[in-house]
Amino acid sequence: MYKHLFLIVALLIAVGSAVDDDAHAKAKEVHKDDGHGNFAYSYDITNGIGAQEVGDAHNNVQGQYHFTTKEGVPIQVSYTADENGYHPHGDSLPTPPPTPEAILKALAYIEAHPPKEEQKVRPRPQPKHGRH
Fold this sequence. Notes:
Blueprint: H1 2-20, E1 27-33, E2 39-45, E3 50-55, E4 61-68, E5 74-82, E6 85-89, H2 101-112
Antiparallel strand pairs: 1-2, 2-3, 3-4, 4-5, 5-6
């Protein structure tokens, strides 16, 4: 009986110390900047949160960040950012549902049968109503 009580108390202490881990987390940071627009930075925190990023004078940036969810799932996202926008990549990011087969068939049909240029209809001249 006491053996089980001891295990429960030990488990509660372990869970409690894991929750407090964020409050006592330590960070390791690195920053580099050459003064010409090129830069790099990174940080890693002892609680598992971290990020890295490098960029150049042409506003091209590459990086990644990572953390662990409360459920214990590790998350990592890498990204690029440039004149075409921000482009994240990662297994945890939502993705759109697949395009329905009927829509794909309709698009293929439209591509195979482009609409013909409509003939321009000239307006009919209106009869002149005059007083004689």
